[in-house]
Design a protein that fits this description.
The protein is built from 11 helices and 20 strands. The chain is an alpha/beta fold. The strands form 5 sheets. A 9-stranded mixed sheet has the order 4-3-5-6-7-8-9-14-13, sandwiched between helices. Strands 19-18-17-20 form a 4-stranded mixed sheet, with helices on one face.
Length: about 400
C-alpha cells in the first residue's frame, strides 16, 4: 500500500499556509450564514480578516456548554450545524446529552487517514468493536474502513465469545475499538484454544498505555491510536514512527491556556482547541477540554503537519473510562439521587491493563447495592462503591480523581 493516504500529508509549510489563507475566510463566512448559533457567536467578525492562525486566535472560544445551553432552547445541534436535523443522515447522542450530526458521504469524519496510517487497507477484514448504539464511534470507523477499501465486521461491544468466534471464522486481520477490549478478545481466544489472525489494530476512546501496546506487539499485533471526538471527527493520529500524534489535514489545532483562548508556547501543556473544515458542522475554536502540547519538528515518517504529544488528561475534571466520559455533572446527579449522601468522589486507576473505577461516598450507612445500581444508571459504567464516614474524603474540590499514569 502507498506510504501516505494522500498528498496533503507531505505538503510544505508554505503550501499548508496558503491553503489555510484560502479556506479560513470561507469557513467563517459559511458558518455565519448557515448556522444561526455561529451568526450570534461570531457577530461582528469580518471573515476576510480571518486568514491565518494569528487572526483565528482572536475569535471567541466555543465550549460544549454553549451547545447544551442552545439545545435547551429547542435546537438539537444548538444552531451550530449548517442545516436542520432532517438534513443529516444520522443523529447521535453523547453524555450531557449533546447531539451530533453525521453523514453517509465519503469519510465524513476523516478517519480513513488514521486507518491507513495503521496499515489497514484493501484485503483486510476489520472487526469494528466500537459501539453503534447512540454514540457515533461505530459509524465513524465503518466510514474509515470503507475509505481504505477494507471489509468491516460491525461487531460492536461486548459478547466476547461471539467476538472470538467471528474473528476466527471470518478471518479477521485487523481490530478497531477501545485499547482495552482487544486484550479481552485475545485473552478469551487463548482460553478457548483459538488463534485469531489479527495483526493490526487502530484504537481510540481511551489511552493506549505503553505496557499494553508492548503486550500487543509481543502477541504479533501492531497497535496505533488516534485522537477523535464525536463532534469533530479525527483530530490527530499516530503513524509507524510512533513519535507523538500528527494533526489531521481537515482541522486546525491550537494549544491554549486552560480556561482562555490564548495560545501557549510550543511544548507547554494546554487545552486543545480545534477548528474543523467540515462545512456541514463547522466548529470553530471548539474547546475539547483535553490537554496536550505541541511537539517540535515534523514526524520521521515524512508527514509534515504539526504534531502533538497526544492526550495528556483533562483541562477540567472530566475523564474517559473504557471509552465513556465521566463528568462532574454526573457525579452531582448521583449524589442528588441519595439524600443520605453528602459527597462522592470517583477514583479511576488501572488493574490488569484495564480501567477500573471506584466511587467513594460519604454517608452514614446506606444501601450499597442501590448505590452501585445508581452509579451504573447515571454514569453508564459499573464501579465498586465504598461508603466512608463523613469528613473522610479530601477537601480539595475534586469529584473525579484520575490516578492513571499517562507517562
Amino acid at each position: 500500500m502507498p506510504d501516505y493516504f494522500d498528498e496533503l500529508e507531505t505538503r510544505s509549510a508554505d503550501a499548508r499556509q496558503a491553503a489555510l489563507a484560502e479556506t479560513l475566510p470561507g469557513l467563517v463566512a459559511d458558518a455565519q450564514e448557515t448556522a444561526p448559533g455561529f451568526a450570534k457567536h461570531l457577530e461582528g467578525i469580518d471573515p476576510a480578516e480571518v486568514c491565518d492562525r494569528t487572526a483565528l486566535a482572536k475569535l471567541p472560544v466555543l465550549r460544549k456548554s454553549a451547545l447544551m445551553d442552545a439545545r435547551e432552547a429547542g435546537e438539537p445541534f444548538g444552531g451550530y450545524a449548517a442545516g436542520p436535523v432532517s438534513g443529516f443522515d444520522y443523529v447521535f447522542q453523547s453524555p450531557g446529552p449533546i447531539y451530533e450530526p453525521g453523514s453517509r458521504s465519503a469519510d465524513w469524519w476523516r478517519l480513513g487517514r488514521c486507518a491507513h496510517a495503521s496499515g489497514i487497507g484493501a484485503g483486510d477484514i476489520v472487526q469494528n468493536c466500537f459501539s453503534y448504539h447512540l454514540t457515533p464511534a461505530g459509524m465513524m470507523f465503518d466510514s474509515a474502513i470503507a475509505a481504505v477499501g477494507a471489509t468491516s465486521v460491525p461487531a460492536g461491544t461486548g459478547q466476547t465469545d461471539l467476538q472470538v468466534r467471528a474473528a476466527v471464522d471470518i478471518g479477521t486481520t485487523a481490530y478497531a475499538g477501545t485499547p482495552d477490549f482487544l486484550k479481552v478478545i485475545l485473552d478469551r481466544a487463548e482460553e478457548m484454544g483459538l488463534s485469531p489472525a489479527i495483526t493490526k489494530a487502530a484504537v481510540s476512546g481511551g489511552a493506549l498505555f505503553p505496557s499494553l501496546r508492548q503486550e500487543y506487539a509481543d502477541r504479533g499485533v501492531s497497535c496505533l491510536q488516534c485522537y477523535a471526538t464525536a463532534d469533530l471527527g479525527l483530530i490527530a493520529y499516530e503513524s509507524s514512527a510512533m513519535e507523538g500524534m500528527i494533526v489531521d489535514e481537515g482541522v486546525i489545532v491550537e494549544i491554549v491556556r486552560p480556561g482562555t483562548g490564548d495560545p501557549v508556547p510550543e511544548g507547554e501543556v494546554g487545552e486543545v482547541l480545534v477548528t474543523s473544515f467540515n462545512r456541514d458542522y463547522p466548529l470553530i475554536r471548539f474547546a475539547t477540554g483535553d490537554l496536550s502540547a505541541v511537539l517540535p519538528g515534523a514526524s520521521p515518517c515524512g508527514r509534515t503537519n504539526m504534531r502533538i504529544k497526544g492526550w495528556m488528561g483533562r483541562a477540567d475534571q472530566t475523564a474517559k473510562v473504557k471509552g465513556m466520559f465521566v463528568r462532574p455533572e454526573q457525579v452531582a446527579e448521583f449524589v442528588a439521587r441519595h439524600p443520605g449522601v453528602g459527597k462522592a468522589r470517583v477514583e479511576i486507576d488501572r488493574e490488569g491493563e484495564q480501567d477500573r473505577m471506584r466511587v467513594r461516598v460519604e454517608a452514614d450507612g446506606g444501601n450499597l447495592e442501590a448505590l452501585m445500581e445508581s452509579v451504573q444508571a447515571v454514569m453508564k459504567l459499573r464501579a465498586d462503591v465504598e461508603v466512608v464516614v463523613p469528613g473522610t474524603l479530601p477537601n480539595d474540590g475534586k469529584v473525579i480523581d484520575d490516578q492513571r499514569d499517562y507517562s
